[in-house]
Amino acid sequence: MSTTRSAYQKTQTSLIKRLQETVVGVSWSEFMVVYTKLIFSIARKSGLSHEDSDDVTQETIIKSHKYINRYNPQRGTF
Q1: Does residue 34 have a pLDDT over 90?
Q2: Given phi > 0 = left and psi -120 to 50 = alpha, else beta, which region is 72?
Q3: How far apart are CA 50 and CA 54, in angstroms?
Q4: CB-hemisphere CA count at 13 Å for 78?
Q5: CB 56 within 8 Å of CB 48
Q6: How many CB atoms lie within 10 A of CB 4?
Q7: Cα–Cα distance, 62 to 68 (Å, whole number)
Q8: CA 76, CA 4: separation in Å to the nearest integer?
Q9: What pLDDT was estimated at residue 65?
Q10: Given this model, what pLDDT does residue 76 score?
């Protein structure tokens, strides 16, 4: 399992690096495909309504786009 997690972390880091290099494009499309469902699912599991989960998902994606250049892989945060 740790091998899978390690590979996933490398993918995340490489995706974030590509996101930092472009404002629009394939990398952001990939980000949306991968993370929209995840963010929405977490919001729903926390008890939010479908509509509120949509709002949280949208706001999270917008904030990610706004602050992507602040990401520090050594800290693992934005």
Answers
A1: no
A2: beta
A3: 6
A4: 10
A5: yes
A6: 8
A7: 10
A8: 18
A9: 81
A10: 67
Per the CB < 8 A criterion, the answer to whether 76 and 55 are in contact is: no
Q: Six-digit token pair at 55?
A: 């709002």
Average pLDDT rounded to a whole number, residues 34-59:
94
| 3-state SS record for 6-19 | HHHHHHHHHHHHHH
In the numeric block, the tokens 């091998």 are attached to: 3
**Which tokens hold the place of 16?**
């974030």
* 57, burial (CB in 10 Å: exposed 0-12, middle 13-18, buried 19+): buried
CB of 44 closer than 8 Å to CB of 31: no
Sign of the C-alpha dihedral computed for residues 35, 37, 40 and 41 taken in this order? negative
DSSP-assigned letter for residue 73: T
> Residue written as tokens 């945060």?
77
Measured CA to CA, the distance from residue 55 to residue 50 in angstroms comes to 9
